[in-house]
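Format notes (please read before filing issues)

Several people have asked whether sequences and structure tokens are stored in separate files. They are not. Every record keeps both together, in the order shown below: the sequence lines, then the token lines. Line labels are part of the format and must not be stripped during preprocessing.
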Amino acid sequence: MIILKLGGSLIHSAKRIIKDLIEYTSSTGETILIVPGGSIFADTVRKVNPSQEAAHWMAILAMEQYGYYLADGTDAKRIDNLKIPGSGTYVLLPYNLLKSNDELSHTWDVTSDTIAAWVAFKLRARYIKVTDVDGIYLKGALQNELKAEELIGIKTCVDAELPDFLMKNNMNCEIINGNCPGRVVNALKGNITGTLIKG
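Then the structure lines:
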């Protein structure tokens, strides 16, 4: 089982990535659960500036909207729970799941990054974040590997809560640039070009 957070920044290349994932799971018999980012739908939530409580659930509904977009016209199967029925590529629609398992803080520090990590924790699965950058940069240099504690209080391509969550639960996160064709599939095979965050 692999949890793959598919960033909203990749909305224009997401269908290509999903096609690659489906081909990969079809040929290997593995299971990938895609956790969608919020994309342009979450940007709208930020613009209207609701209360933190309302923003939390509105942003999760934004993830759900992006999830419907990701599954539309692809063979990825939509699912709204963590009872994965078998191998293949699935897209999580997270609203009902998180409403019934309300364990995360209701703040913008917790975005789809930490939500995807939470899903990976629940399923004891590998966690890959696919985004539009090559990984974590510190002092202008791309980091191939670093400890989550090094990211505390630093603004990077992951949300503010993720480093704490990874440390608390002894988890890792791999960051891969989805705009580079072949890089995601290579990462699935263990050939990571990006940043490994060690929790």
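For reference, the curators noted about this record: The chain is about 40% helix and 20% strand. The radius of gyration is 16 Å.
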